[in-house]
Amino acid sequence: MDEKQLAELQAALTASEDALKVQLKAQAEEIAKHGETTVKTAKSIEAAEARIDQAVADIKGLSTKVAEELTAELAEAKERLAELEKSGQRPGWPGADLDPDEMKSPGERFIESEQLKTALAAKKRETEALQIKSLFASFEAKAAFLSDAATRLVIPQRTDTVSPVLRRLRIRDLIPVRSTSSNAIEYLEEVGFAVTGAATGTQTHGAAAPAAEAAALAEAQLEMELKTANVRDIGHWIPASRQILNDMGQLRSYIDDRLVYGVGYAEELQLLYGDGTSPNLQGFMTHGSRQTYAWSSGTVGDTKIDALRRAATKAHIREYMPTGAVLNPSDWEDIELAKGTDNHYIWFNVSSGTEERLFRLPVVVTNAINAGDGLVGSFAIGATIWDREQANVRISEHHEDFFTKRLVAILGEERLALTIYRPDAFVDVDFDAAPS
């Protein structure tokens, strides 16, 4: 704001008010003496009032102008800040809609939690459970299959003395996730609706067909089986010295690099190969109603790339749109190194690389699936992960002789269920041998 201009307007307003007071006093004296005021005094009063109105309007106009300028400057500052955020390549950008806590790792959230602060302030050697929305920061999950997701989805190693080998944990990113307050999920598994035509091998759904007037309609062979998926516990714990509670950086590393990563590691194995027998989940690769495709059953000359496409076709025939694939690194290597007759790479650009996709499908490359196995499926509509409890991280010294040994137990766990509504939406690919 122009302070000099404002001061001048305020001075003019004060002078006009003083002049008005003088004229009003004179008017009162004239009325008392003569019973009326003079024309000169009346005009002087009108002039003083006009000057006051003008001064007030000028001050108001100046204030409005300044407010507009400040608003414009604020908007410009926000734009500059946004550009700085973006150019700084902060994890998860764009992420203006994310909760700041969601941008922190589980270890960071635990060492900053009220549970840990309360326990330390009371000199306790145990904490209440800290509920974490996900085993992985939300921005990591949301960034699945972006061009630079391969680096963001790796939980970084944070210890100074140990370099753990970390697997990319991404299978969960293919599957819808919901929460539940129950220990078991009852759901309907669809069977018997899609049947194979005897002549063409094509799929027909139900028995709907034209019918003559008064003729009976065909009965659809739609069958639904009631299934139950029990919530299972996945977790582990590690011992640590009591002094680690005073070393927050190291505590965070313990949680992120060991406990949280270990839970996610076990989860991926269960999602794929859990046999459904307590306490295991029912995984995709062991479901009795899944579809299968063997590489050796294809056309002579087919590569593993062809096998995956033909497996996707099996899902398409059942009217399912595949939304992802899972491959072992050794099988993915064969795909990336496939060459044409002129010795050029068919799929992979060595100089610039490319996204991990095949036939528009995002591909998760992981050791969680065995070499020689592949999985193609409609994850978006065929299955759901149910989180019974958000991931738990807690500390306690009440374990065996930990109190006398000045040790604490750091525990991490999760509780979840997996429901596979349409098992035939998933195709188990067997890279047994090339067709001959």
Description:
- It is a single chain.
- By secondary structure, the protein is of the alpha+beta class.
- The chain has helices spanning 3-34, 39-87, 106-111, 114-121, 138-142, 149-152, 248-273, 304-317, 329-336, 379-382, 402-405, and strands at residues 130-132, 177-179, 184-191, 194-196, 203-205, 223-230, 232-241, 291-294, 324-327, 357-358, 361-365, 373-377, 383-396, 407-420, 426-430.
- Mean pLDDT is 76; it is low at 88-98, 134-163 and 197-201.
- The strands form four sheets. A six-stranded mixed beta sheet has the order 8-15-12-9-11-10. Strands 1, 2, 7, 13 and 14 form a five-stranded mixed beta sheet that branches.
- The chain starts with a helix and ends in a 6-residue tail after the last strand.
- The chain is 37% helix and 21% strand.
- It has eleven helices and 15 strands.
- β10 and β11 (361-365) form a beta hairpin.
- α1 (3-34) runs antiparallel to α2 (39-87).
Descriptive terms for the model:
five-stranded mixed beta sheet, six-stranded mixed beta sheet, elongated, 21% strand, 436 residues, alpha+beta
